[in-house]
């Protein structure tokens, strides 16, 4: 409702010949709802009813070179794989057939599973001719953190790594956002009870792949200034602007406390640590924490709307960024290849509700592409086949 307050002080005025009546606003003031600025300081409502944001689908008249990229230029590793169940030869074959079409050489399965469920996947893969196309991360159960929890979690991690897990992840956004301790309080990301676990990752020399918080806009009021309005209106569970809810900034500082306190543990911040909309902040995080790398899943809409800044960021931090996709929708990978590899302009993203804007290619050099697609993953996740 913040938008309505600015209507005060606005006066309707008559216009010159040929123009319909408008509303004057003081310099710097926004136009009232339902109107747009047609001349400096003059706001006018359209003569025809305006379509909703769902129904306004203009066809671009821009004619420009198009270079879709169905296959990655170099063999890629997806470090943020959610292929679903991989416990049968059929399921494995189906995923591999899709991976081949995309030039996806390998997938790191990040389904956050542990113990028997992890073992079933590892066994199925070990028996498969495609065993070198996958590696699997283990999971951590953050429920019931209290006395004895750390010992149990570390023992499970030891067993999972021994069984063949190459790291842990994806630690879900629920950790920090809404997992509670037995006393009902929120389990903070930097709760000291978890320190033995973070230390165990360093001892075992395996990375932690962690999704902390959500896009900043998910924590803001759901008004018409929120650039994720449509997504939040569609998905109530993504709204994190409730009274008493932890804020984005609190989560970021808890996460950074963990990065700081465990310099020997390798952390992979999923989704660019949710700083792809503020690359200066992403750079600051990488500069402050040499033990942290970022993964580029599900933030393509932010990279593709700032192709020059994103290009320079990728070149500067080329050893710290890994390709990851998140949800396994084979049709969506080519959008990533196109943004990374081409200099195409003004093309569609794959989900309108994520981004109502267009994307532009970053035109990354080959040397950077190779690192982002594969070399960095091989360095950070040591158990990947060559
Ligand atoms: Zn994920």
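^ Assign residues to that structure.
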């Amino acid at each position: 409702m913040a938008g309505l307050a600015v209507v005060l002080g606005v006066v309707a005025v008559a216009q010159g010949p040929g123009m319909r009546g408008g509303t004057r606003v003081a310099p710097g003031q926004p136009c009232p709802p339902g109107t747009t600025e047609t001349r400096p300081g003059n706001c006018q409502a359209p003569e025809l009813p305006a379509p909703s944001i769902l129904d306004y689908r203009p066809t671009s008249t821009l004619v420009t070179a198009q270079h879709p990229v169905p296959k990655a230029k170099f063999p890629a590793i997806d470090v943020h794989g959610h292929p679903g169940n991989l416990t049968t030869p059929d399921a494995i074959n189906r995923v591999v057939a899709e991976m081949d079409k995309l030039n996806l050489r390998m997938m790191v399965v990040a389904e956050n599973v542990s113990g028997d469920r992890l073992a079933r996947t590892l066994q199925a893969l070990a028996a498969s001719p495609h065993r070198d196309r996958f590696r699997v991360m283990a999971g951590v159960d953050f429920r019931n953190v209290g006395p004895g929890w750390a010992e149990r979690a570390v023992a499970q991690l030891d067993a999972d790594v021994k069984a063949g897990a190459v790291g842990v992840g994806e630690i879900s956004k629920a950790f920090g956002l809404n997992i509670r301790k037995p006393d009902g309080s929120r389990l903070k990301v930097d709760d000291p009870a978890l320190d033995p676990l973070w230390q165990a990752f360093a001892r075992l020399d395996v990375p932690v792949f962690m999704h902390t918080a959500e896009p900043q806009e998910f924590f803001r009021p759901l008004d018409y200034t929120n650039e994720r309005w449509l997504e939040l209106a569609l998905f109530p569970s993504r709204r994190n602007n409730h009274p008493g809810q932890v804020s984005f900034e609190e989560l970021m500082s808890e996460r950074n406390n963990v990065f700081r306190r465990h310099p020997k543990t390798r952390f992979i911040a999923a989704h660019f640590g949710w700083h792809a909309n503020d690359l200066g902040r992403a750079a600051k995080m990488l500069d402050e924490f040499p033990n942290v790398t970022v993964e580029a899943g599900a933030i393509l809409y932010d990279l593709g709307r700032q192709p020059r800044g994103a290009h320079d960021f990728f070149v500067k931090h080329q050893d710290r960024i890994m390709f990851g996709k998140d949800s396994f929708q084979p049709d969506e990978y080519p959008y990533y290849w196109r943004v990374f590899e081409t200099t195409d302009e003004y093309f569609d993203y794959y989900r309108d509700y994520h981004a109502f804007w267009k994307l532009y290619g970053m035109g990354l050099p080959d040397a950077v592409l190779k690192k982002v697609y594969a070399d960095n993953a091989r360095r950070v996740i040591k158990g990947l086949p060559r």
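The mean pLDDT is 94.
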